[in-house]
Amino acid sequence: MNSLLRWQRPVLGSWTGFTPWADLRDEMDRLFEAPLAGLASGAQVFGGWAPAVDVHEDKENVYVQAELPGMKKEAIEVTLHEGTLSISGERKAEHNVNQAGVCRAERFVGRFQRTVGLPSAVAADKVKAQYTDGILTVTLPKTEEAKPKQIDVSVN
User: Fold this and answer.
1) Which residues pair with residue 57 across a beta bridge?
2) pLDDT of 65-85, one tens digit each?
3) ∠ at Cα 19 (14, 21), nearest 5°?
4) pTM
5) Which of 10, 19, 88, 138 could cross-link 113 (Cys pair, CB 3.0–4.6 Å)?
6) Domains in the chain, CATH or no CATH each
7) Hey, is 65 helix, strand or coil?
8) Closest alpha carbon to 62 in 135, 151, 116, 142
């Protein structure tokens, strides 16, 4: 059976002449003592949250799927500009919870924006977006110039 054990600092004697190494060891020890500490506050440093996005294509279309669970479709904005698709919006907190009463808070709330460069030229006037079961699917038809073409080989 595999189990996780809390890392403990090895007990070592102090060696003179190794002060820089001891300082480095102390910094590494500090990192392991509080793994992922401040992750929630770190999200604020990076400007909020960003949904997971998948981009794939076939001969006819480019597809972009974004995970946006719990969002209302009215709170989602999709824009296309010069080969770049932007998905943005805001997820609002469901409850106004007093911080003292929170036991665990892992779900992100607030504004988000996700920008994706498209791998092919698309027909902007034919783009469709569908939101079902927390997944936003944007279908971007390729322009005729971007679609692969079959070239016949002639024999002389």
Assistant:
1) 62
2) 999 998 899 999 999 998 999
3) 95
4) 0.63
5) 88
6) 48-141 (2.60.40.790)
7) strand
8) 142
